[in-house]
Amino acid sequence: MSGRIHQLSTQLINKIAAGEVVERPASVVKELLENAIDAGAKSITLRLENGGMQLIEVSDDGSGMGKDDARLAFVQHATSKISSLEDLGAIQSMGFRGEALASIASISSATLHTFDGSSQPVAAKVRNNEILVEQGDARQQGTTVTIRNIFANIPARKKFLRSATTEYKYVYEMFVIEALANPDIGFRLIRDGKPILELRPQDMLAGRVTELFPGLDSNKMLPLSFKKEGLQFSGLIGHPGIATSVAAQQFLFVNKRYVSDRVMNKAVKDGFSSTISRESKPVYFLFLELPPGEVDVNVHPRKLEVRFLQPGQIYHYLSSSIRLFLEKVLQQELYSNFRRNEPEPTRIAGTRDFAVAGPGSAVKPSIEFTRQLLGHNSQPEMMLPELKFDQGSISVVDFNFLQIFNTYLVTEQGSKLLIIDQHAADERVKYEKLQKQFNDNTVTAQALLIPEHYPADEKLKILVQQNLDLLTRTGFKLQIQQGKILIAQIPAILQGRDFLKTFTELISSLRLGKLNLSENSAILDRVLATIACHSSYRAGFKLTHTEGTKLIADLFRCKLPYSCPHGRPIIWEVERGSLEKNFKRKK
Ligand code: ADP
Ligand code: MG
What we know:
Layout: H1 10-21, H2 25-38, E1 43-49, E2 55-60, H3 67-72, H4 85-88, H5 100-106, E3 109-115, E4 122-127, E5 130-135, E6 142-148, H6 155-158, H7 164-181, E7 186-191, E8 194-199, H8 205-212, E9 221-228, E10 231-238, E11 250-254, E12 257-259, H9 262-272, E13 284-289, E14 295-296, E15 307-308, H10 311-340, H11 360-374, E16 402-404, E17 408-413, E18 416-421, H12 422-440, E19 445-455, H13 458-466, H14 468-473, E20 477-481, E21 484-491, H15 499-512, H16 521-534, H17 545-555, E22 571-575, H18 576-582
Parallel strand pairs: 1-7, 11-13
Antiparallel strand pairs: 1-2, 2-6, 3-4, 3-6, 4-5, 7-8, 9-10, 10-13, 11-12, 14-15, 16-17, 17-18, 18-22, 19-21, 20-21
Helix pairs in contact: 1-5, 2-7, 7-8, 9-10, 10-11, 12-16, 12-17, 15-16
The protein binds adenosine-5'-diphosphate (ADP) and magnesium ion.
Adenosine-5'-diphosphate is lined by residues 31, 35-36, 39, 60, 62-63, 65, 73, 78-81, 95-102, 143.
């Protein structure tokens, strides 16, 4: 048999391509907004009817098009953005395939009204696969693309659309993404004739975030910016204290493209490390910029993933920068608290504050820094300055505390009442001490008089073998033998504790480390956190005055005194003012 193979018609090709590009109204909105952005628009209006199913219209004040370009805009693989293979490796624009408009027009009725500011205004439309171009009404420079009744002629696709409300929700999400990626552009959203959002052009991301998420406390949004050999990332991260249970405010952009990438998001989450609990979702708006050649944007048009040349490096860079940043910020907060508490007009007899010894001038720049960082008028693109204070110069003189329920330590600090969870506090202290010893290779170990046998199958032995170096550095000495692991030495702080139980838990935390990236600090964190947890004061344990004092003092020398290595809170602060309100001393 011959003649079975034949070339498909353009119409059919476009429809098939449309299946790739256009899934629902939101995908049309994405393409049209990005075209307007690529055209250099400063102001963009999106109008929708019936969740976009009936009408999607995007008007911009960008470059506009002349007659010939207006025709070509609807032709498959026609683009003004690239012309050679080399261009593909250096893309600056959002679009480049030249297939969006052609695809969209093949599954809807599409019209275009455009003016390039010099030739004549043009009106173009696509009807039954034919492109009709004529002179258009007078208009400002720019372009309006109107898409009506998507999928009207393709029932098989139409039935996958959901209710107008659901489609609108998707469109809205897309609108937010484009608005976040382009704070310098003004955006308007009009739904079924009603104005929904009017976003003014902003010089800073922070302004746009506030417009879009008025519920976010702008004082808790921390600007950050890091740079390293061609790699750069900047944006805003929410203070760990505002992390929530839903991941509603997590936005990550790579070269201005929104991505939803598991590894990237994990990198950010790991950067928050122990400042939030494992279930909490941090808030962030982050922009990663890297040379176009380092990232492949030519993946599927609708997919929100990216392919990096060096994913492990990016992961590590993101997570370690965020971790460093948060450590500094939280430490600064703590020290500025100390500082603020200094002169107190009224004192309750018989109590003393924490005292700050050493030169006040050394602490001051850091307070200024914190203020700037947390204040409204902070600079979004600020780099972190070197911190000046010397931890050794801050000493805790003496203070009163009360242990209650053999579990909490109650004390005061300036104008605050502090309730400290003794187990969580001790965990934090031990964890940071271990971390330091681990990094300096000075973990103290204790040899066992009689080595312990730990039963182990093949899988377990491999797991231990793979992590032997890490376990050895934490103080364990292990020998892998037939059917068992011999434990000859343990970290000294586990002495007198149920170290077999600790070991069991350690092993299960190793199993959790699925992400196999070169420097996986998350696994180490878990290992150290487990050892710290198992060696800390338990709830219900009566502390002596010396033990309690030392614990509180040690806690305030920690880098992250507010949350335990598992992310649970350590300190509950009650403002003196709120006590006074409760006792009706003040209103
Ligand atoms: P791509 O964006 O991948 O180039 P599209 O099909 O989205 O492909 O658009 C085709 C071409 O039409 C673009 O390359 C651009 O030259 C032109 N174009 C589309 N929308 C606009 C617009 N709003 N303003 C100016 N030119 C536009
Ligand atoms: Mg495009």
